[in-house]
Amino acid sequence: MSPVNDGLVTVLVVGLKVSAVCIVLVVARGVVWFLNMVLIMPLFDPLRKLPGPKASALENHFQDVMDPSRSSNAHEKWQKKFGKTFRFHGFGKHDYRMMSFDFRVVSHVLNSPTYEKPWQTRALLARLIGRGIFSMEGNEHKFQRRLIGPAFTLQSVKSMTPIFLQKAQQMCDQWELLISEPFVDAETVPSDPPPAYAAVATAAEKFKGVTVDVAHWISRASFDVIGLAGFDYNFKALEDESEEVYGAYRRMFDVADKGPRLRGILELYFPIIRTLWPDNGTKVTNESLRIIEKAGNKLVAAKKATVMAETSKQENQQRDILSLLIKANLSNDPSKRLSDAELLDQCSTFLLAGSDSVSLALAWCLHFLSLNPEIQIRLRNELLSIIDTAHSLATEEPCDIAVTPDDKYTLRATPPPTYRSSTHSIHEVWDEIEASPFLDAVIRETLRLCPPVHGTIRVATADDQIPVSHPVALQDGTIVEKGGFISIRKGSYIHIPIEGLNFSTDIWGKDALEFNPDRWTSLPQNARSPAYPGLGNMMTFGMGPHSCLGYRFTINEMKAFLATILPQFVFQPAAKIAKYNSILTRPYVVNKFELGTQLPLVVGRYSS
Ligand code: HEM
Question: What CA–CA distance (Å, rounded) separates 399 from 423?
């Protein structure tokens, strides 16, 4: 062999040896890390001392914690057995996690800067909606919240009322068409109807109802609402379901709705998998993100140009959330301004936060009303006492909602509803609707009983002592008394059971699991602020610095939709419905889970 070849062989052998040593070192490091995580660290985890359900080495309690079909029983059972604060097991026995129904604990965790959303939650959201306020923490979050907050004041939300009312009516016009040309949308009815469908057939016959997947229709309407209220852009998803951005958004969330699979979890830890080995879900998500980004970029550029032109002319016409954001952004220190890409991420955040959550809440509300006909009738009567005729109900002054400079959105397809007197402006009547006590109570009770966000999670970024207001009996027999503290280690997860707190019998009484809007006319002592620190006396919108910015927006949109829908339509159940939790709590037809989110109801015309 020549000396050159000899040299090459030596280099190759050394290279192989170095590689082998590197691989051994990496594997050894992995094994040490794994053993440390599974065997050593748990021995020193203070959460180990808390009471809680047992688990075998590979068992987890995620379903009992997060699956709404099991969580209410599991939470109730655990509270009875272990008290208000306990631990459960996450990804195996080694993974101790805390859960608490003690407001002192919940409030401490949600208000203290020591606790943040886990990076896994933020990475998942960032993949779908970019780096908007949802995935921010610390000073970046404070800055964005200051910027966005003013777009959600009472006044700003009130100015969006015409949009809510008009989109609600446009949806009713579509339902009216379904009823007048009776046909059953094949896609909304399971191909093999469960007995419940047969049972309602006679009732449907009686009031000439048709089965309508109300979740689907309200989802389209609320997407249009957030388009107009958020960006002054009419997606027209109500008119055309195949609208490009709506379609992209739906397809992307249909993938996410399938729930966390092993691949999804692996992708979170090793995002490179998406590039090296994209599956159909990844391809659909990537394509959807491309469409949304393209449309969003155009929207942000056009909006910026309009706002700049208005600012130079000292005009102030644009009231949508994006315009308010751009205006606030302009007045900021240039070094702190949001870039166009960041503005786009905020748009995606509003699309996610502002459409599905409200539409699901509205769909759940119609579900509860269909199951409780006497409440449905009472609410309709309350609304009819404000609104003159059941069938023609709006203002004579058309609401002028400019959509794009060249596209004036025609607000109504059918004659507008007429409010009690033509001398009333829509805003005057709106004040009456807004102040309707039973409408308010029905909405709050829906949001309490079926909060679209089932729970939230925080991770401790440093060791901490958490104060408790209910005693905790530790495993070694020690009692942490009221006013005492529980130790928690950096990196531990705390689960906040939003739905569980809304269901607590200690707060809401024995009928906590019943749909009883009247409870809101005299709230139990424990459900009143400050004893109950959540927004609007429930945990549905969270609490603390990350609490929901869209609280008022949601209540007002729900009021406008119900006030428009109920005087025109009657609802009856069409199938047995259950809940599943995939990012949000969604309805599905029992035994028809594979059909995805659906809430079929028999919808008939109301005639007095
Ligand atoms: C039924 C409807 C809604 C529910 C149940 C809901 C629930 C929540 C909850 C629980 C949080 C806090 C999450 C946490 O602490 O981990 C939150 C945050 C947020 N919500 Fe909503 N939301 C709803 C509607 C809306 C709407 C309509 C908008 C905007 C148009 C919106 C915008 C936001 C934003 C921007 C945040 C993040 C705030 C921050 O991190 O500072 N939400 N929401």
Answer: 15
